[in-house]
What does this fold into?
Amino acid sequence: MRVTYQELYDVLLRALLKAGFEPERAALCARLFADTDLDGVHSHGLNRFPRFMGMIRRGVIDVHARPVCVERRGALERWDGRRGPGNLNAHDSMERATELSREHGLGCVALSNTNHWMRGGSYGWQATEAGAIGVCWTNTMPNLPPWGASEPRIGNNPLVVAVPRPRGHVVLDMAMSQFSYGALVSYRASGEQLPFVGGFDADGRPTRDPAAIERSGRPLPIGLWKGSGLALMLDMLAALLSGGRATHQVTANPDEETGLSQVFLAFDLPSFETPEAAARVADEIIENLRQSSADGDEVRYPGERTLETRRRNLKEGIPVEPSVWRQVQSI
Amino acid sequence: MRVTYQELYDVLLRALLKAGFEPERAALCARLFADTDLDGVHSHGLNRFPRFMGMIRRGVIDVHARPVCVERRGALERWDGRRGPGNLNAHDSMERATELSREHGLGCVALSNTNHWMRGGSYGWQATEAGAIGVCWTNTMPNLPPWGASEPRIGNNPLVVAVPRPRGHVVLDMAMSQFSYGALVSYRASGEQLPFVGGFDADGRPTRDPAAIERSGRPLPIGLWKGSGLALMLDMLAALLSGGRATHQVTANPDEETGLSQVFLAFDLPSFETPEAAARVADEIIENLRQSSADGDEVRYPGERTLETRRRNLKEGIPVEPSVWRQVQSI
It folds into this structure.
């Protein structure tokens, strides 16, 4: 079933207001969730909303908390997220990093003590809409075994890199596991095997069976040892820069996952270039990529599919899971 | 055969002085090459030195050129590498980024018009030795097909992330291909298959045969579509921030590869933390990683093997390829 953006937004907004959000924060939070579904990332939009509300009820997320700046050094700031809503904290942090970049050429906000930021890509799109290059990442609870190990001790630590481009922003949003847990769930639900090896089964054998990976808790890091190493570095940087927790200090239970550390970087692109000149460079790089299509497949740039989905969903309505939709309507 | 660090350094230094380097630059350049062999990365040390000298002879590299700052905006600077030696340009850029980070909390140098930086990890180690967190990357000539394509149109764009730690700096140095061309060469030379699929053969079939990948020019991006996307973003950021060339503008011939763009970021760790407190955080993260050893294998942190190799080579001498060693001695 499909609903309009406005319907989805209104239902989310009402639920958030009931949960005690101040009106302006409820509006931003509803927009961030609705935009995520609009872009087709349902696992981090409406489908995650009931868990988000549950964490508010259990006091894991404090709807009244706003991030505060705790330390400042030129273009680098430390903020305490005070266990506020993760998407609002992340949004405010990218906004502040962008402000810092206008003053210093680049800016960095390191955020401690925050909650799951939902869809990381949101803050990449946000930076590009403000005309800045945005880079951000988060640590997570332990959910990925380091390469060579069987026990999840590192996080899949999503990384976002975003470049503004008038003809379509270029936004990469990738976790350090080959397939997200959300992707495993949806392949399993539709009875499909993964298109490529996505992890190990309980006996340590490489597998394309999503259910076997969910059971073993052993998804594959991207690039094997390489993604495992990069996940570790992202965690170290997040914890060291923010002064917050590292992955090993975060409770390994998705319903209690809190106290995360994140980094938001913005580069002020117009420092040296007119937006037109920068757009030309980005366009040429994308054009070169397109020309490499082979075997009849088209080569896409990061964010391209998102824009297509956004356009389609704006026209045709946003697909919602009927049971979740009814559940959120009834809040 | 093995030689002492001093022997290797002296031979390199003599060759560089003969090639016209000023004494101080020759000394730095010889050290960067010798350190690379000391750390066991022979493909980017002595074994690459003859090609480096060839590029000097053919005028691709200008031994007298020093990078100059062309634009400045707070913590973000653009430098023109003027086709000088790539390792010296990169070293100077990380040094400047570190200086900027002391002033602004973080600093960024975007470098255009430079040459191959040889071992990227060198500038990560350099940042950590100055007590800073270092992040840097380079674009390259087109040497990697984007995911879904057969023709190399993106670069493997190595990325370096480095965190200082008194008990052993943590330095990740990874290209966006699963195996470097250097690794393919050495597996082929020893008649071995790759331990994992490393690319596609000429018919587009996944393969572990290094020679087949060298012939097809289709190495595998790390994480399949993910590493392909990240390589594209690193190229866009390097070209946009530096104002220099993107991968598609670089000649796809390793002997003529020049005019590269690079980004050097440094974070001033002591902004908020004493070095002791930061070391404790990094130690705990490494300690947690170690505890995840499974199946009898030890889980290593990025840079750990490098430190072991460094210690062994300092004691036992540095392995050199006799034919290359004689060739460089005779310069």
